[in-house]
C-alpha cells in the first residue's frame, strides 16, 4: 500500500490517502480510501431540480391572470422552498454516505433521511470476499459500480454503491487483507 500516492478526484468521490480524520479513528490508523457515489449519479436529481424550476416559471405565466400578486409570491416562495429542500436533502444524502477504508478496517456510513445514521464496520481480518459489480452503459463509460465486502460469521456485509473505480477498490481491499 506504500505505492499509493495521495490523490483526489472530482467532488472527492474517490480519495486515496486523504488527510481526513473521523470520530472513531484509532491513534495509529491510517485512512487509505474515502469513497462516495460517483458524481455522474447526481445528474438525475439535478435534472429533476431543473425541470421543477422550469415548471415553476411556466406555472407563473399560466396562472398569472388568476392569482393576486401576494398569492403569486406565496406560491413561488413555497415552490422554491420545496425545490431547494429537494436539492439540499439529495446533496446531503450523497455527501454523507461514505465508505472509509483504513489499514485496520472497512467502514460504511449511511445517512437515511438526514436524521438516521447507520455505521457498519468490520476488521480487515474478518473479510472473506470482495466483489466488484458494474453493469450498464453509463457505468461502463464512467467507470462506476458497486463493491460488496463479505465478512466472516454473522457480521453484516458491507456495500459501497455506485462508487468510482470499483475494480481498483477491490484490488486495494484485497491487498490490505493479504
UniProtKB/TrEMBL annotation:
Short name of any one Pfam family annotated for the protein: bPH_2
Entry superkingdom: Bacteria
Keyword Zinc annotated: no
Instruction: List, for all copies, the residue spans of the domain called YdbS-like PH.
Output: 116-173
Give the stretches traversing the membrane: 45-67, 74-96
Chain segments annotated as coiled-coil in the UniProt record: none
**Which PANTHER family does this UniProt record tie to the protein?**
BLL0215 PROTEIN (PTHR37938:SF1)
Could you tell me what this protein is called?
A: YdbS-like PH domain-containing protein
Q: What is the lineage of its organism?
A: Bacteria, Candidatus Roizmaniibacteriota
